[in-house]
Structures are given as C-alpha cells and as structure tokens.
Amino acid sequence: MALYDLYSHPAEIVYRAGLCSKAAIFLLLVTSLTYIPPLLVAFRSQGFWLKRSSYEEQPTVRYQHEVLFVALLGPSSSSGEYLAWSTFPTFNQFQGDNLRVPLVSAREEDKNQDGKMDVLHFRLELPLKPTEHVLGVQLILTFSYQLTAPCATMAWLRISSTGMAVLFMVQTGLLLYLYTHHNHLLPSLKEKPAHVHVLILSSWRSGSSFVGQLFSQHPDVFYLMEPAWHVWVTLSQSNAEVLHMAVRDLVRSVFLCDMNVFSAYLPWYRTLSDLFQWAVSRALCSPPACSAFRREDITSEAACKSRCGQQPFRAVAKACRSYSHVVLKEVRFFNLQVLYPLLTDPSLNLHIIHLVRDPRAVLKSREQSAKALARDNGIVLGTNGTWVEADPGLRVVQEVCRSHVRITEVAMQKPPPFLQGRYRLVRFEDLVRNPLAEIQSMYDFAGLRLTPQLEGWIYNITHGQGPGQLKEAFKITSRDALNVSQAWRHALPFPKIHRVQELCAGALRVLGYRPVDSEKEQKDLTLDLVLPQGRSKFSWTSSASSYAREK
Q: According to its UniProt record, where is this protein located (predicted)?
C-alpha cells in the first residue's frame, strides 16, 4: 500500500557552549594549529614552495709562481729594444743578451682567515744600467682557479590526514625540525689538522744531510732534501741574494704540498727521479708514493732508486699531504730576515732548526767535494754563471761564516716576537757527542716521538768504523761520528787553519768554538775545542749573549 506525506517540518539541532568551556578552547586550539604552522613554515622557507635557489662561493685562486716579464726600452738604450725574463727556462734560453734576471717577491695573504687567499703581494725589481730607460712593462702571471660547491638537498613532503591529532603531530614535528636543524642542512666543513713545518737551515758540509735523515726516517715525516737546488741550477747566472725570493717562494709551496711550483724549473718532469735527491726521502719510497717499503721501515737509498724511480711525479704531492710533518733541508738561505714572511704566514706552522758546524771541519769536508760544489760556489760569489772549483782565498767559507753570524745574532740578540719558540740552534759537535739526547730534544721541538726502532738505527749510523770513504761524501753511511767531527785536526795544515780562524773569528766566537794558537794545540785531542754553550744557547730572557774563550 502506498504512503503519502501529509505534513513535515525540518528539525535543527544546535549545540551551544560557553566561550570558556573545554569544547570552545579545544576548537580554537585546533583551528590555530591548522593554519598558523603552515604560515610559519612558509615564512621560514621564504614561500609556500621553492621558487628559486642560489649558491654563492668565493673561488680558490692560487698564484702558480709562473711569470713572464718584458720591459720595453727607449731608443737610446744600449741593451737593445727590450729586456725579458720568465720562469720558463726554454723562453730564457732564446733571449740571449736581452735576458735580465729581476728580483721577484710574491706573498699571498688570507685577510679574513677563511682558508682562501684574498690578496697577492707581488714585487719585481729590475736592475738597470744608467743608459737604459724603460718605456713600458708587460707582465703575465698565472693563477689556478677552483670551485668546490657543496650541494644541499631537502625533501618536501605533503601529508594529508583526516585525523586532526596526526596533522598536529606532523606539523609540530616539522616546525621543530626546521627551527632546530636549519643550520645543519648544508654539509659542515671540518678543518683539517694543521701540518707542522720544519726547516733545517744550514750550509754545505755541515752535517745537514745526516740531520735530514734523522727526520726523513721518522714514520710521521715527509722530507725533501734541498728542493731549491732546482732554482739555483735553472738560474745559475744570478747570485744568492737575488735568488733568495725565488727560493723562499718554492720552499713555501713545498711546505703546503703544492708541487706545481716545480713546473717553473722542471717543465719536463714526469717521474720521481726528476726530483733532486728524491731517493733519500723515506716518504717517497713508501706508500702512497711507492710500495717498496712500509712507512715504519728504515729505507735504503739504493733500493729505493731501483724500485721507485719511475713512479709519477704527482705522487710527491699525494705523499706530502698524507703526513703530519713536512721537513725540508736547505743550504741556500744566508739571512733570517728573508724567512720572516714564512714565519708570519698563517697557513704555515714553521719551526727552524739552525744547524752549524766548526768552520775548520767544514773547510776540510769542502776540500773533499770541491768539484761537486763548483756551481754553488759561483752563485755564492756572484760570478755570473762561472763555476768556481778552487777557492784559495776561502771566500765561500768566509761568506758561510758571515751568514751564520747574521742568523744567530738576529735570533739571539734581537729576536722578533713571531720567532718565539720557533728557532733552535744545534751544533753538529754536540749532536755527535750525545746523539740520542740531542735528537730527542730536536724531536720534542718539532713535536715528534723517538721510537725504539729509530733509536737502534741512530746508534748504528753513529757508531760505524772510521770517517767514511771519499765517494761517500754526500751519502749517509755508518761512520764513527765523533771521529768525523775531529778529522780536520789531523788532515789540515796549521797555516790553513790559522787563515780560517782569521776569516771566521766572529763565527767561532758566536757559535762557541775555541781557536788553536799552534800546531801542538791542533793535534792535542785532549784539548776540547767545543766550548759549553752556556749563555750562548738561545734564550728569551736576555737580549744579548756573552761568550767565553778558554785559554
């Protein structure tokens, strides 16, 4: 049977509550959490969705120590139309009489201490004749340019839920995450531990190769012997004073493991064997440079030469960066002031070990290896590329003595503040008399630990038989070190010793060596000619030092 709706009335049901009731407060809270958190997130992220993203970075720009310089001369000049010089040996060979070596100084500065260089201080001084007039200068410098852009990724999530409690938890959690982790969205850059840089500052035939090996054989040390040899060989027509800046710049680059600096002096380099005296470096005979030895092994120069010589040159920089200490031995600095920029460079942690030796013993050793030192003698004496094998006037020995006096007096009498704790004077004679104690002291100065294996090697290397063979003059072999230090007292005639004492009187006094007044005193080995250092030892409490002479 069909039904018919006779009357209907819609019914409305309304629930009412006071403004301070729990229901009203809950509804207000839910409404606020629904709309306010998205607005905060949008404000924090600068929009409801990511419209544009940008990244800014200061590039790493480094000076590559490559220079090409041309000076245009006036028509009245006697040297031609121009003067030229570059760090590229092939270019210099084609210049003939137009080649003129300038004094170049370059220093990079990190002004805001962010690890990236901001300013290059470059100075070039060109010696000119009175008849030469420069009309213009053309200068080309090379730089490396590198960008390293970290990429940050974010996940944007859209979450929907019918449950207000779920929405509340998600929104609140996201809000807290953005506020507390905003600074961690980009990958953090961890600072690498600083290297320790040690410069063994000495002169030829002063035991510096031996001291260099004391550091080279340490498993934490990357060592190179006389890297500035390449500078002197390439620019042998110049003199030591002019080459100071080029030597210093190369040393700085090597300390920072930037081996590109060698391209100016070794444009053909391909393997480790192109580097001067590379095989005496344990670091270049062990991983990562070569697998011939382990890092903990005492290496052999002969074995290293036969097994590692063909390793690529890029292994030098790779090995350098893997060690905590970088140690260089150099004999081509003749004053301390030229090293001030390295001592104040914030990218370096430089310590200087100043190794000296009795000038009379130095002379005896130099006479045994005169031919090998001929090129260096010419540069020291400024002979414009002429080699000097015979030096009857002992001019080179005199200049070496003067340099030791200059360095020692600056360091001891008027030391600059930045030299504090970074300079140590070591006498070769003290080292051979008490090797373990002196070596332990040098290791402490450099922040190294003397291992039992090194102790055994040091004992063997200093307690051999005799002074060594003539052919071993530049090699580290097992010898009687104390005998070596006294050999000059039998080998040199007294007139020559007397002449050395006259030329090096200041060095003998400052460094603490007693002169001999007769041949009898010379031959008397019971007479100790090495004076106690006493106040001549480096001190920060006194501005001057006094030296006693025993009769």
A: Golgi apparatus membrane
